């Protein structure tokens, strides 16, 4: 009888959060909107910059390809071209970087009905090769630009945008505090 130490939890929650050279990050959030509505909004990648602060721009370059310009730590930008893969209508959108991109990444976002009609559970799982390897990942954490932190904040903004039509920023309160 053999014993496996197989961990069937999502890769992003396992102690070994790497898939080959890719570090896996991800989050889930429940959004009080219909699954099809959320899927359709996300499927149009040009919508993503509305709630993903790290995205400077996304341009469609083909039916399933898009060019992304992403803000990186220390005022730099990273450009990559992605292609959509493993799209299941109304349920899942996958993507991966293509050759020539500055970073190697792949990921998927899935949409499942929340229990008892409470909306949709949106789960994002992103694999990436950290710029400059593990050291780059640690440095990026110091600047709160680490992808796991960004994923959490971006899903919260997606929830606010889809449930209320706007994203609360807290800038009014910061301005009031600064003016005292």
UniProtKB/TrEMBL annotation:
Gene3D superfamilies attached to this UniProt entry: 3.30.530.20
Organism superkingdom: Bacteria
InterPro entries, alphabetized: ORF3, Polyketide_cyclase/dehydratase, START-like_dom_sf
CDD domains (alphabetical): SRPBCC_8 (cd07817)
Region (Disordered): 1-21
Annotated protein name in UniProt: SRPBCC family protein
